[in-house]
Amino acid sequence: MIFYLPGCDVRKNHPEAVRKMTEYMEEQGLRQAVCCRKDLEYISEDDEIIQNCTLCDLVLRERLPENNVRSLYEYLLDTGFDWPDYHGQLITIQDCWRTRNNRPLQDAVRECLQQMNFTVRELPENYENTRFCGVWMNNPIAPDLPEVTPELTAWLEQYRTLLTPAEQESIMREWVSQYDTEYTAVYCNGCERGIRLGGGRPLHMIELLSRDL
Questions:
Q1: What is the pTM of this model?
Q2: Which pLDDT does position 28 carry in this prediction?
């Protein structure tokens, strides 16, 4: 069985896009999974999980280490997905710190953008060198995360630096100032929030992919 996990925050931020993509995935025979932090006993070791949330990816890899976990972007590249056409529009790709050890996901995002006929602009700090996750690392850890993923929580505590809202906005405005395109493609909720806080114009991959569904 293959499960599709849209991601709670992705659904909250992009409800219509997630609805359309979920319907598409169900048409492909996938079953919708619930929140990655809830009961996952219905998933067996032989099941595959397709996700489009960078935090879900980390949580699932700790909670279900025996399962194959892949991104939505990798999955769509292996299907007959009908790609929308953005006619060569220039867009910057923002890699997420959470994915710096997940090159297949990063490569798949870029290939999806190429399939959608974007002209992709790379940042100097990308792939495994990226340190960006918006202001996610400048806020407290979600209260339910330590219980379900103690290893991930301990790892995050090494890098977290709490900042005031004003400080967060200041560093995000500085970060966004490096973009030289109108739009920035993101595949992480934290990245999306941070870029918007800094006055940028992020476009989540789920919105781009679901345009013509």
A1: 0.94
A2: 94
